[in-house]
Amino acid sequence: MEQQGYQLTQEQIDFFHENGYLHLKKVFSEDQCQLLIEEADQHADNHYTNYLDLHHKPEFKEVHTGKTMCDIGDALLPNRVVPIGSIFFFCKPNNPLELGSTWHQDNYAGKAIDGGHYLNLALALDNAEPENGSLMIIPKSHKYGTLPCNPKPNFSYDENGKMYQSSPIGNDCDIPEGLEIVHLTYERGDVLAVHGDLAHKADKNNHPTRWRKTMYFVYINDGSAFWPGWTARRELLERYDSPKLIK
Hints:
The chain is α+β, with helices and mostly antiparallel strands. It contains five helices and eleven strands, in the order H-E-H-E-H-H-E-H-E-E-E-E-E-E-E-E. The chain has helices at 10-19, 30-44, 58-65, 67-76, 107-110; strands spanning 21-24, 50-51, 81-89, 118-124, 136-137, 155-157, 163-165, 182-183, 191-195, 200-201, 214-221. The strands form three sheets. A six-stranded antiparallel sheet has the order 1-9-4-11-3-2. A three-stranded antiparallel sheet has the order 8-5-10, with no helix packed on it.
């Protein structure tokens, strides 16, 4: 998948650090998104739930470790970013295998030294609005650090050994008083940058017909420790410019 890279403005970088998120429009083309959708559908084989391993598939791996996403991450974290994992949300309308998410911070699972060293870059593969469960965020909540929470296992396995979402994603964190909740609207090909300590959630997709497919690519600040996790199995991955990949 051809990638030209992506350069952020200082205004965009400042907005991210002040608010804990950034919405970048039309980062990936329709054709690029369709390749990813086809690869995700093949992997799911009609078992539409959340998947933790799609970043190992060829097209997703190219995006995860490629120049465009790494350029965005490099601009937002202190050092260069290193890809470490992903989670894919199919969000089929009224899907019993998906339950949405509670208010949570991503770094509760990754356990980096702080949320400013842990980054989620969400690539929208469908248009998303409140009607089909788009992301809700609390700007500036990342400034409160790790919030008190009540975590629980999010995934279980059925009788055939297939993983499914058994409880809402997240750690059910306490929300600081007086902060505004923003319900985002975004389109296929857009990328949302989410600070590791930003409180956010997405309700179950109850729209009668519209899907909401999203891939969350996870990155760590180079040199920062993180927890691999029991189910996520995060690991350091080689990015496009890793020394042994340069010819």
